[in-house]
Amino acid sequence: MKSLPIFLDLKGRTALLVGGGAMALPKARLLRAAGAELRIVAQEPDPEFRSWAAEQRTALAERPFRENDLEGVRIVIAAGPDDLCRAVAEAATARQIPVNVVDRPELSSFLMPAIVDRDDVVVAISTHGSAPVLARRLRRTLESQLPARLGPLAAFARRYRRALAAAVTDPTARRRFWEAFFDGPIARDLLSGDDARAGARMLTEINAPGWREAPRGRVALVGAGPGDPELLTLKALRLLQDAEVVVYDKLVGPEILDYARRDAERIYVGKAPGRHSHGQAEIAEILLREARAGKRVVRLKGGDPFVFGRGGEELEALLRQGVEVELVPGITAATGCAAVAGIPLTHRDHASAVTFVSGQGKDGPPDLDWAALATRRHTLAVYMGVASSARLSRELIAHGRDPRTPVAVIERGSLPEERKVFGTLRGLGALIADEKIEAPALIVIGEVVRLAAEAPRDLAGDLALAAAE
Ligand SMILES: C[S@@+](CC[C@H](N)C(=O)[O-])C[C@H]1O[C@@H](n2cnc3c(N)ncnc32)[C@H](O)[C@@H]1O
Description:
Distance between the termini: 59 Å
CATH superfamily of the largest domain: Tetrapyrrole methylase, C-terminal domain
Mean pLDDT: 91
Bound molecules: S-adenosylmethionine
Number of strands: 17
């Protein structure tokens, strides 16, 4: 973070504005809206500025800036000629008064954000002067997405805070009340303007006994996708933002964990250097412990929890103990990596079947039906296949797959470090060794690989031939 966003209470405090042109007018309006006592100094104000000041009954000193204008001032904004702004900035800085010079971040000790204003709710956006147009675009997006009556909603919550604190003394139960409130019918009534019905419902809710009971914990088994946070489902995002505890493993990166609530407890259960990896029993134990403590737990797993993710084992353990479980699928590595490589896993001309295969068995090499996997017009998406790639290639060829079948290997697909390499089934082991491919990587085997825009020309050249065969 380049600077700390804070909200300053200016009600009844003096704010000095130096300047009376088109750039100063929006700042004058803003300071006025924040409840500041405005002191304005402008040697030659625009007529529009002058009439605004008269309308607002704001004193406008039509003379040059003087250092003693800074007396008793809480903040200063300057907009005007360069030498004037520089003088104002220097004088304010010498007196340690926060100063902003419009469009001159280098002269400013604080920056003015782009603002979405909904009374009690204010959203401030800053790019630290790097891209004001981007800040304005973000503001426009937020303006269009945030409900107009957000302010009254927040004001309503403020009015009931005390009453609720008296009725529900447990802070966790109170937080849950507010979460249900903002998701539920009372908030909807307020947003649609039915304040009377919201008030009546609120009284009923506050007096309902349910809030005093210990909350019941639950676990959501959530697929996080292959790594790019934009590949999270909306449901995964919502649950992640709502979770009190997030239990995650190695394939879930910080980019995704950033979407969890700041105060959520994060428990890592993957392998760490020099540490044993958590066994399934241990992970189930952690999930049970947290759910029994009444927490909302998200068990976040890379890809889809039920595709080579051992989600099934965790689900069984939780259900056996009577814990409420919600399942949220994720984009699995096969579909995620195929998409980033531009490979359609099936295609009416080239592949009428796709099989997800694990390159690793429970206790060593996988026990696979090689003859079934070696059939033509059949795409294989191989997970955990880096170490066994040479064997994979040998077995498939021995069982009849064409050695010229194209292959793609996608390492860390959808992440910034993503790599894609292409070759043929015959050379798969050597390709992985030469390119020093490391897990996590997904291997795609099949004629469809030729369709990838980045596939080398000699692979693409065989495409028509293969389709015709
Ligand atoms: C234990 S499996 C978990 C699979 C996960 N449940 C899924 O649905 O994608 C781990 C394997 O998934 C594949 N994988 C997961 N994320 C990947 C990524 N971003 N890029 C390439 N392969 C990935 C790799 O083959 C890795 O060895």
